[in-house]
Amino acid sequence: MTKIIETGEIHFFYRAKIDIDTPSEVDDLQRMYLALVPDERKKARLFIVGRKLMPEIIPGESDPSERHWLLLSEVGTPTELGKALHPVEYETKTRGERQTPQAIPVAFGRYVIASRDSSTQLAYRLNAPKNIGAAQKALNIQNEARYVISVRNPSINVPGFPDAEPDYPKELFEKFADERWINISDSRLLDYENAQLVLIGAEPETDPIEIGSNGKVDPFETFGLDRDNWPDDPLENGNFASATGEAEPVESEGDRSKGGRLGGPAAAKTDSAAGVTSALKGVSFPSDRATLARQARDNDAPEEVVDLIKTMPDRQFETMADVTKAVGEVR
């Protein structure tokens, strides 16, 4: 028996590394994002996809070894999420002016989260591109697919998963009990930033879960993106495209440790505790200083953030809280 939990729009984006003009493979990417925009709700969700590609699907079986994490990066209106996809320009101490490129839409369609066979599954079918191309193949995005999807208990450490904790209210936190993973019995589990999920490839088709059309899907309209400043080659012909949008400069005014007057995304670009936390998304704990610096570089963090990490005490860090404390020691 299949029970529908949620339906909506699904969107995939990639953000190239700073020094890459036109990416050709996963190693050229800084991030892959998956966005879910539920029907009849004002909130949307932006996830960072672990390993920067969707899990491989082995027909006929759900292979736990082929699992990838999702980190819920932002929750807000679709327009607010759209702002997180824009390019950002910032100054570094050693490299001068730098620009993080825009996140480019690579595929979109409709999704369903449903309870089936004692698990919850995410099923989707693409509206665009019409034919899977090089970009989608590189990211393991198929025309349609099903994945087993579960939410991680934030109080239990799972090796290989980010050390981040959502601020769940008591009624939701109690759903985890002593389980490491739970099904998505309540879609509100996906409404808290830093929530972590696991995706396991199930089937390269949506059946028997039905995906309805339910209106037009358009990433530019949904997220308030200017078509003139956003390439659509991946959606038209399936190929990777170069970033074309120009960024608004980010200049902190006031206390750099608080991101200046801008706050929010601006703070995440500075050598503040928020900036370091943002730079270390995806890191596994425990980690030493050198590992943290490598992770920050892999995430294309501003050089000033990498420099700050290098000045932290050379010791083992067990949690992100340990890192934040070390940042306070050296600032």
Written account of the structure:
This protein is an alpha+beta fold and 331 residues long. 19% of the residues lie in helices and 28% in strands. It has nine helices and twelve strands. The strands form two sheets. An eight-stranded antiparallel β-barrel has the order 1-2-3-4-11-9-8-7. Helix 7 runs antiparallel to helix 8. The longest helix has 11 residues.
The total strand number stands at 12
How does the helix and strand content classify structurally? Answer: alpha+beta
* Mean pLDDT reading: 84
Q: How would you spell out the order of helices and strands?
A: EEEEHEEEEHEHEEHHEHHHH
Strand order in space, largest sheet = 1-2-3-4-11-9-8-7
Give the number of helices: 9
Report the sheet-strand fraction: 25-35%
Radius of gyration, in Å, reads 20 Å
Shape: globular
Low-confidence parts: 249-271
What is the topological layout?
Layout (H helix, E strand, L loop, with lengths): L2 E14 L12 E10 L5 E6 L17 E10 L1 H7 L3 E5 L3 E5 L3 E13 L2 E10 L5 H5 L5 E9 L17 H4 L7 E2 L13 E8 L15 H5 L9 H4 L11 E2 L23 H7 L9 H10 L4 H9 L8 H11 L1
Parallel strand pairs: 5-12
Antiparallel strand pairs: 1-2, 1-7, 2-3, 3-4, 4-11, 5-6, 7-8, 8-9, 9-10, 9-11
Short description:
The chain is of the alpha+beta class and 331 residues long. The chain has helices at residues 78-84, 134-138, 170-173, 219-223, 233-236, 273-279, 289-298, 303-311, 320-330, and strands at 3-16, 29-38, 44-49, 67-76, 88-92, 96-100, 104-116, 119-128, 144-152, 181-182, 196-203, 248-249. The relative contact order is 0.16.
